[in-house]
Amino acid sequence: MPELPEVETYMRALAPQLKDKEIVNAQIFWPRIVAQPDPSLFCDLIRGRRFDSFGRRGKYMLFGLNSGETLIIHLRMTGELRVQPPNVEPDSHTHLLLNLTSGERIHYRDQRKFGRVWLVEDVASVLHKLGPEPLSDDFSVEGLVKALAGRSAPIKALLLDQSIVAGVGNIYADEALFRAGINPRRPSGHLDESALARLYEAVCWVLQMGIDLRGSSLGSGPQNYLPPNGVAGAAQESHQVFRRTGQPCPRCGQPIQRMVIAQRSTHFCAQCQPEG
Ligand SMILES: [Zn+2]
Predict the structure, then answer these.
(1) pLDDT band per the 50, 70, 90 thresholds, residue 14
(2) In the list 115, 139, 173, 234, which could disulfide-bond 213, CB 3.0-4.6 Å?
(3) What mean pLDDT is predicted for residues 40-50?
(4) Is 3 among the catalytic positions?
């Protein structure tokens, strides 16, 4: 559920809470949460390390430790990370605890258990398949043209493909396609350079808007996203089509429609995003 803007907001909230804090030890309650290395080695390696730097790549959170290693966390659908005072006890959805010398504890909770944690020397060993970072110079119209050439898959599906561009998920893919006036079902390789230039601009714009508004806090339950400082995001208020099925298109007034592409709900305006 958290996409690039939500993960970026997460890191910006966690950095001041964790900077220079030292990890006493780790407690793992569900071993499969740790993808790499094996859980007992993970516990050995993380003991006594300090949080040094904070970054993000696509939807991955990167915590640089003073050992030079990086703790990588991907929240997937329902993962959540909280720095809690010592009196907050882990519950049945807490799969990893990091005890800090400050007395605080970092709780990793995850109802659906799709999230994963890595501790690695070489970040590329986990992230090597990721495509360009959209708000960096690595992402470009020329790169997009090249990556999509000859591809018959619908553009919506390839926007969700993290090897084409990192960090875009269902919300921001729908919003970007609407802003660019591109039908989500269009075969990717059929889009000409001017359409892809619009799409490039739209992807950057919706992601930056998402960051500026501290992410999208949607719905209720475990899939609702709330950053670690507990302040809900406001990007959902700027959504033009996402989860607005049946409501008037803000541009033309026609009802927003919904279809399924790559098993994902897709929201669009048939008039502003024509098929042809
Ligand atoms: Zn419209």
Answers:
(1) very high
(2) 234
(3) 98
(4) yes
Q: In the chain, where are the structural domains located?
A: 4-127, 141-268
Rg of the chain, C-alpha, whole Å: 20
DSSP per residue, 234-269: -GGGG-SSTT-TTSBPTTT-PBPEEEEETTEEEEE-
Class of 141-268 in CATH:
mainly alpha
One of 49, 56, 57, 59 is an active-site residue; which one?
A: 59
Residue 1 pLDDT greater than 90, yes or no: no
pLDDT of residue 135: 98
Q: CA triplet 245, 251, 145: central angle to 5 degrees?
A: 90
**Among the options 151, 243, 258, 264, which is catalytic?**
264
Nearest to 83, CA basis, from 69, 71, 100? 100
Which CATH superfamily, name and number, covers 4-127?
Answer: MutM-like, N-terminal (3.20.190.10)
2 is catalytic: yes
Mean residue pLDDT across the chain: 95
Residue range 207-221: average pLDDT? 86
Active site includes 90?
no
What is the CA(255)–ligand 1 centre distance, in A?
A: 8
For ligand 1, the distance from its centroid to the CA atom of residue 159, given in whole angstroms, is 21
